[in-house]
Amino acid sequence: MARAIDHIVHAVHDLDAAADLYRRLGFQVGARNTHPRDWGTQNHVIQLPGVYIELLAMADATEMAPHSPRFFSFGAFNRDFLKRGQGPSMLVLEGRGAPDVETFRAAGIGDFDLYEFQREGRRPDDTTVKLAFALAFASNKLAPDTGFFSILHRHPENFWNPVFQKHPNTATAIAGVVLVADNPSDHRAFLEAFAGPRGLVSGSSGISIKTHHGEIQVMRPGVFLDRFGTEPPTMERGARLAAIRFAFRDLDAATEQVKTAATISSSRMGYIALGPDNALGATLMFERI
């Protein structure tokens, strides 16, 4: 099985508005967190078992570190992404820390030093806990507007919490993430190096790889539009993250919740979709388990 999805970054201009939208869609949204000063970013986390969505916006960028040789600037990447628009900006997989740096370097998909940081987190009872992470960045030259890295949770017992994973809309998992590309097969070598070669499947609609925490798909824009009924992002600079797929125990209940918060862009048997105009630059898929 391929390396599992850890989280997807949904970059937005207004963090309060993003948190409010996800809450109205029926998700439990965590407290606001501040990243290291050299990132200049802040977030809210939406946890599901073993995987999460990171709502991300800029904060105080006065000390943001620029990109430099062997240093990938998380803050600068998302700052530049947000200058072009909102939406899913980064795909993050479960990591091993330093070994991933060497794996990515040997595969020719990254020559960046390991980045480590820590911050405080809060439990449901409002007590603080220590969190620490090790990030290994990768780069796909055919997708410069999509960030890729793996993450090792140094204190996973302090980060993951079943209390945070219960959502009024009955969401139970991330079913997958979808990228769009003019020629999906061009991204096969990168995905095999980044996620692992096991389980990658090619077909007429594109390529896909299943992980323990959701499927990674790459498909052509026309296939995306036909399948989901929403417009894919523009791709002047290369492949882009386009959709986040959520799985629900009770899709009917989730649909009623969504109707109170936003206009449904498409509805087909087994799922509904919010398009980028209604979901801050992302297509959000609500699917039956």
Gist of the model:
The protein is an alpha+beta fold. It has seven helices and 16 strands.
What does this structure look like?
The two termini are 20 Å apart. A hairpin with an 8-residue loop joins strand 15 (271-274) and strand 16. The strands form 2 sheets. The protein has an 8-stranded mixed beta sheet with strand order 2-3-4-1-5-8-7-6. Helices cover 21% and strands 37% of the residues. It is an alpha+beta fold. The model has no long low-confidence stretch (mean pLDDT 96). It has 2 domains: 5-164, Roll (2,3-Dihydroxybiphenyl 1,2-Dioxygenase, domain 1), CATH 3.10.180; 166-288, 2,3-Dihydroxybiphenyl 1,2-Dioxygenase, domain 1. It is built from 7 helices and 16 strands.
Element layout with pairings:
Layout lengths: L4 E7 L3 H10 L8 E2 L6 E8 L2 E8 L15 H11 L2 E8 L3 H10 L7 E8 L5 E11 L8 E7 L2 H4 L11 E10 L7 H8 L4 E4 L2 E6 L2 E6 L1 H8 L11 E9 L2 H9 L6 E3 L2 E4 L8 E6 L1
Parallel strand pairs: 1-4, 5-8, 9-12, 13-16
Antiparallel strand pairs: 1-5, 2-3, 3-4, 6-7, 7-8, 9-13, 10-11, 11-12, 14-15, 15-16
